Amino acid sequence: MGGVTHVVLFTWKPGTTDRQVQELIDTLAALPAMIADIRSYRYGSNAGVAAGNDQFAVVAEFDDLGAYERYAADPRHRNVIEQVLKPIMATRHAVQLVEPG
Q1: How far apart are CA 63 and CA 71, in angstroms?
Q2: Are residues 43 and 25 in contact, defined by beta-carbon separation less than 8 angstroms?
């Protein structure tokens, strides 16, 4: 099995502020330095070029499924979800793409 790309899309609850989204961005920015299994980490707000799209995306790459699973279970990652993300999250969609090989 090859590498794993984790893609997550979010929409925000009504009333979510720019400050709350910036707090999420700041918190996400710290994760790669804390979690060695992260190979690549990108995130940001939707550019707004089409109506009806999700509002925010996270794309993370890992060497293998085990690395992704360690990241998913890591208490620092879980803390971001519980403390920063859940209070503003209305919807979440995710997929883990496994590279052939």
Answers
A1: 11
A2: yes
pLDDT tens string 56-77: 999 999 999 999 999 999 999 9
Can you give the CATH number for the domain in which 81 is found? 3.30.70.100
Task: Tell me the three state secondary structure of residue 46.
Answer: coil
pLDDT tens digits, 23-65: 999 999 999 999 999 999 999 999 999 989 999 999 999 999 9
Number of domains the chain contains: 1
- List, in order, residues 6 or more apart from 98 with CB less than 8 Å away: 1, 2, 3, 4, 65
